[in-house]
Write a structure and sequence with these properties.
heterodimer; A: 496 residues; alpha/beta; Rossmann fold; six-stranded parallel β-sheet; four-stranded mixed β-sheet; 13 strands; B: 244 residues; 2 domains; four-stranded parallel β-sheet; 8 strands; 15% strand
């Protein structure tokens, strides 16, 4: 199964027809939204905390060059080796080289959206190295040969029964519906992998500039093992992950778990500052950090798109989004789904490959309301929509030839003309009243099909599910002229 | 207070009764109401679909027309269109003069329910009706204009009606302008959750502050032959059943 962003509409239709997915998504919405609500109630000034986070992120991004160098300098002092990657291909190449030089056969990985973004697993597999995902959800979808459908809970689209069937098929257990048995199976297999791994690959939640520290949050303990047990630890991080001070963690560690999973704190926080100081200490001998741009500096260039880089990957906007709740993550056909995915994906892979995504939103603003760093996602969506219609969109491979969708553009020009003054507006309305006689029954328009639907596709699309109101016999302005304007006793007609 | 009403396209053409009701309520609470017939659209459909040039033309036209009015307030029965007016300044990123003019107009423009409660300080407009009703928060009124309590206070003061909260009142109805016809299946899926909440609340009317949401919700209720009636805030506040 490989879905692309280009076919979002078709992917979404398929997803809507999947009752199992629907059940899973309903659980997600109910559980996570409620848990988040309860968790943020335990913070005195949640709104103040969000504003603090927004300001820290904005100021950091405005001086990212300085903070990045400070981060590198301090981490190098603690023995970390750095690698700079312009794009995903370079980042994959760097990781691959590091693995080859160490003759690594066994590689464990912890959950990381950055490595998903650059399709690291596929790049390594192509060279004969099979990294093992050690986050339970990630391991499940790796076994299934799928991609994550959620930033935080990657296998949210799978039911217990589907996972049990997968385990029967892939690791040969007896069929069971006992969750304990399933998790124990995973744990036993994964412990083995940890023990034999030469290299552990992780992502990064926060890179602290003043100390050169990386911070990674999790609940299963697999990140602790991935970053602590193998001799070599490679961390792949986007350049936007920097925060200036260690004390800033006070803000972000309160925001991230509450927003993501509704926890006050995740079960584990790995706070790693360089390699071990003494040979007898625990921990890896070497740590490599791959700092990756991959389109980020382009987002940094514009004040509106810059906000995209403030994202701390909590997934709250997915859980709150009515569209995500309907279609799930795979429909977006991209590594990052949901509202933030609809914003980041076109900027990462090029707007021409993800033209539908900025429109995959009712602009309800629920995402902005829950975002812990106050990213104005609707504003970003509108910005990208304007770029699409202007044909000036940047992106991985910007294409000046991009044309507006002809009929839509024509429709907006006609509307621009018709609504430009009372005379043309009045004429347009008269025409509509005349034409609607074809379709209005009992004061409303029921399902239209055939010729009329072909002539007016939006009316066809609307009335497939909803009746449409008829244009009123007497508009407000006509009633105003007829007497409403100077008669305070003008009657309000009840109903239409 | 002298009030210039901004009657949105949907209200003017599809549900004029909402505009007529708003005028009646405003007059009842002592406002002098004027209506400039030159007004057309705020340009929101163009803005939300990405057609900024077209939206800018609408914005300029709107600003010019309402600048000429001496009315202290511009009042509209739509949170969504008022929110668009508040966005006007974004359409002039490099034009300080127009930004300033847009800002002045935005400061004078109010959503109907919020105008009653926050500007006129009126929570009881002397309305009366019957039955059990609930409120649907239109997204732009709620999240762009931060209107949550105002309509609820107004509704609780309508004599003879029982106001109940439905579950997920603040979740989108799935309209989203062109979204509703670009992705009709998703829009309808979101809508059906809303319909479920409404039906569970066991009400005779669902009230909201935006004609667009009511068209979406009402269209589905009508298709399903539901007994629940979609009503605009202005319509229920205009009701004075005891006078009939």
């Amino acid at each position: 199964m490989h879905l692309t962003s280009e076919t979002f509409d078709q992917n979404a239709r398929d997803a809507l027809r999947d009752p199992v997915l629907h059940g899973a998504l309903r659980n997600l919405a109910d559980n996570f939204v409620e848990r988040r609500r309860a968790a943020i109630a335990s913070v005195d000034d949640w709104e103040g905390l969000r504003e603090k986070a927004r300001v820290i992120k904005e100021q950091t991004l405005c001086h990212l060059d300085r903070y990045l160098l400070q981060f590198v300098e301090n981490a190098e002092k603690a023995g970390v080796k750095f690698h700079w990657a312009r794009d995903g291909k370079e980042a994959c190449g760097i990781v691959l080289n590091l693995l080859k030089k160490r003759g690594a056969k066994h590689v464990v990985k912890s959950k990381s959206m950055a490595t998903e973004e650059i399709h690291l697993n596929a790049a390594l597999e192509a060279e004969g190295i099979e990294p093992v995902e050690t986050d339970l959800g990630e391991w499940i979808i790796q076994l299934a040969g799928e991609t994550p459908s959620h930033i935080v809970v990657p296998a949210i689209h799978k039911t217990k029964a589907q996972i049990a069937d997968l385990f029967v098929d892939k690791v040969g257990i007896e069929k069971t519906d006992d969750v304990d048995v399933l998790t124990r199976t995973a744990r036993n297999i994964l412990r083995q992998r940890f023990a034999e791994a030469e290299v552990g690959i992780s992502g990064v939640n926060f890179g602290v500039a003043e100390t050169g520290t990386i911070v990674i949050l999790e609940n299963e303990g697999n990140i602790r093992l991935t970053t602590g047990l193998p001799k070599t630890h490679i961390a792949v991080m986007g350049i936007e992950k920097i925060i200036p001070k260690f004390a800033d963690l006070d803000v972000f560690l309160k925001l991230l778990p509450r927003s993501g999973t509704g926890q006050r704190l995740t079960a584990y926080q790995s706070i790693i500052t360089g390699v071990k100081r003494n040979v007898t200490d625990e921990g890896p001998d070497e740590i490599h950090i791959v700092l990756m741009d991959n389109g980020r500096s382009r987002m940094l260039a514009h004040p509106v798109t810059r906000q995209s880089l403030a994202c701390i990957r909590c997934g709250a906007c997915l859980n709150a989004c009515p569209v995500y709740q309907q279609v799930g993550g795979h429909a977006y056909g991209s590594v990052y789904p949901g509202p933030i995915g609809a914003v980041i994906t076109p900027q990462l892979i090029g707007i021409s490959k993800a033209k539908q995504l900025p429109y995959a939103s009712s602009l309800c603003g629920a995402c902005r309301e829950v975002c812990p760093v106050k990213i104005d996602i609707p504003e970003l969506l509108l910005h990208l929509r304007a770029e699409i219609t202007d044909g000036t969109a940047g992106g991985a491979e910007s294409n000046p030839q991009r044309k507006r969708k002809f009929t839509e553009s024509l429709a907006f020009r006609m509307y621009g003309f018709a609504w430009s003054g009372p005379v043309s507006y009045g004429l347009g309305i008269k025409a509509a009243r005349l034409m609607q006689k074809l379709v209005v029954r009992d004061g409303r328009i029921g399902k239209v099909s055939g010729f009329v639907a072909k002539l007016l596709p939006p009316l066809g699309a609307w009335t497939a599910w909803r009746d449409a109101p008829a244009v009123a016999e007497r508009s407000f302005r006509e009633q105003w002229r007829d007497g409403l304007g100077n008669n305070s006793q003008w009657s309000v007609v009840s109903g239409q | 207070m002298k009030v210039s009403v901004f009657i949105t396209c949907l209200v003017d053409q599809l549900c004029p009764n909402v505009g007529v009701s708003m005028v009646a309520v405003l007059r009842r609470v002592g406002c002098e109401v004027v209506f400039d017939e030159r007004q057309t659209c705020c340009g929101q459909p163009a803005f939300n679909t990405g057609y900024r040039n077209e939206a800018q033309k609408f914005a300029k036209r709107f600003i010019k027309i309402f600048e000429e009015s001496a009315a202290e307030a511009i009042v509209s029965p739509s949170g969504s269109c008022v929110a668009m007016v508040k966005h006007f300044h974004e359409l002039f990123p490099t034009d300080e003069k127009w930004r300033e003019r847009a800002g002045k107009i935005a400061a004078r423009t109010h959503e109907f329910g919020s105008f009653l409660v926050n500007v006129l300080k009126v929570e009881d407009v002397g309305a009366s009706s019957t039955g059990r009703i609930t409120w649907h928060d239109a997204c732009h009124g709620l999240r762009d204009l931060n209107i949550r309590d105002e309509p609820r206070r107004l509704l609780k003061n309508v004599k003879g009606v029982e106001f109940v909260e439905m579950s997920n009142a603040d979740v989108c109805c799935g309209f989203g302008g062109t979204f509703s016809v670009k992705f009709p299946e998703i829009s309808a899926g979101i809508l059906d959750n809303k319909i479920e909440s409404i039906e569970k609340a066991d009400v005779c009317a669902v009230v909201s502050g935006d004609a667009s949401c009511l068209m979406q919700i009402g269209g589905r209720l009508s298709r399903l032959d539901s007994k629940v009636k979609p009503m605009h805030l202005a319509e229920i506040l205009a009701c004075q059943n005891h006078l009939r």
